[in-house]
Amino acid sequence: MSSSLDIDFYETEDPIWNPALLTIPVPGIRKMVNLAATMEDVIHLSIGQPDMPAPAHVVERTIDAMRAGQTGYTMDAGLPELLEALAGYYGQRCERRLVPENVMVTTGATEALYLALTATSAPGREFIVPDPAFMLYAPMIRLNGGVVRPIPLRAENGYQLDPQAVIDAIGPNTYAIVLNSPSNPTGTLYPRETIEAIVTEAAYRGVYVISDEVYDHLIYDDQEYPSVLSCCSDLDHVIVISSFSKTFSMAGMRVGWLIASQAAIKKLRRYHMFTTTVANTPCQWAGVAALRGPRTSVEQMRTTYQARRDRLVELVAETPHLQGYRPEGAFYMFPQLPAGTNGTNVALRMLREIGVCTIAGDTFGDANPNALRISYSTSLAQIEAAFERIIPWMKKQDFG
Ligand SMILES: Cc1ncc(COP(=O)(O)O)c(C=O)c1O
């Protein structure tokens, strides 16, 4: 049986593009946000970026850099001052010696993920990925023929990852394990024991751990953050990815990075030169200012998000049909509707009928089509207003 896509593909007179592009789905987020844009009075619980401005000193440094004529390319690995600042910052935070040659600056964490996943993926290689996960990982792996091996996670235990399930999934074709703690879309923070168990076994079996740590400063209840960099004995099998986007509200400034062994960084530099050349130069200077300057805004942001998280947990608990939990990081929650409920239909109906925009679970994998991603990167007032609509609406539903 051939799908309509196949027919279009073979019968069209248009030039044939790379069929690998078919691995990239139409993002569920775009569909919802585009529909919401045609409506009035929509409350967005769909936002994937901080709702706070970048720190003033960071903005000033960008403008100063431009005024000072720092508008050319940097060296290919990144601005030397930023490489130095990142190596020092991670070295101190993770208590290990890092040199600038362990770092490469990219156009956001997105480019870092693209380079790491497409440089390692190849036909037949398997990548273990928790499900649900940030929606970029699976297509980037499949683009180059790699196979995604999902590990299903559930709301009942706060979407925690069982390290033994990951270890059991490692087989002869496993090339890498993708981790993202705290997670988008669940906000789940993996404890040190989980990360250590996975990283140790992966190193022993010669499997890479590719760790997306973009939410590493959005951690609540004074918990420590176990970065993969603080859980590995050497860097031979780890690639850590992060960016300024979330921690410093700099998503549009597009500066991220990879931390890995010097040998891996050497290979990735070649690839990076042929992908985006270098990251945005004035914003790399802004990054130096972010790392070296005061962190008061980061702490304020964390406190604000934690208060919102606390209130959201209460509101979800008061909502019929939604099973919540207590996310420990990032700014998302991924509550489940009763088993068998189609989350896409519910998200669409909630948008159309009460003007509340959430993102359906199937955007993030196959394991939880009955979930909704709720982002609390919006004011407490908006969160309250959204649930004043959601709770009475849910009371009227019968998902049985
Ligand atoms: C888990 C995760 N990784 C990476 C990114 C992309 O970050 P950047 O803006 O640095 O490209 C996001 C953005 O939403 C994310 O949620």
Secondary-structure element string: HHEHHEHEHEHEHEEEHHHEHEEEH
What oligomeric state do these chains adopt? Answer: single chain
Q: Count helical runs.
A: 13
CATH superfamily of the largest domain: Type I PLP-dependent aspartate aminotransferase-like (Major domain)
Number of domains: 2
What is the name of the CATH class of the largest domain?
Answer: Alpha Beta
The global form is: globular
Secondary structure layout:
Elements lengths: L3 H8 L16 H10 L5 E2 L11 H12 L12 H14 L9 E4 L1 H13 L5 E6 L5 H7 L3 E6 L10 H7 L4 E7 L11 H14 L2 E5 L25 E6 L12 E4 L2 H12 L7 H12 L3 H23 L13 E2 L9 H12 L1 E2 L1 E2 L11 E4 L4 H16 L5
Parallel strand pairs: 1-10, 3-4, 3-5, 5-6, 6-7
Antiparallel strand pairs: 2-8, 7-8, 9-12, 11-12
Helix pairs in contact: 3-10, 4-10, 5-6, 7-8, 11-13
The chain binds pyridoxal-5'-phosphate.
What does the model show?
This protein is an alpha/beta fold and 400 residues long. The chain folds into two domains: 4-53 and 297-392, Aspartate Aminotransferase, domain 1 (Alpha-Beta Complex); 70-292, Type I PLP-dependent aspartate aminotransferase-like (Major domain) (Aspartate Aminotransferase, domain 2, 3-Layer(aba) Sandwich), CATH 3.40.640.10. The chain is built from 13 helices and twelve strands. The chain has helices at 4-11, 28-37, 56-67, 80-93, 108-120, 137-143, 163-169, 192-205, 262-273, 281-292, 296-318, 343-354, 380-395; strands spanning 43-44, 103-106, 126-131, 147-152, 174-180, 208-212, 238-243, 256-259, 332-333, 356-357, 359-360, 372-375. The chain has a seven-stranded mixed beta sheet with strand order 2-8-7-6-5-3-4, sandwiched between helices. A three-stranded antiparallel beta sheet has the order 9-12-11. The chain has a two-stranded parallel sheet with strand order 1-10. The longest helix has 23 residues, at 296-318. It is globular. The two termini are 33 Å apart. The structure holds pyridoxal-5'-phosphate. Pyridoxal-5'-phosphate is lined by residues 48, 108-110, 134, 180, 184, 212, 214, 243, 245, 251, 256.
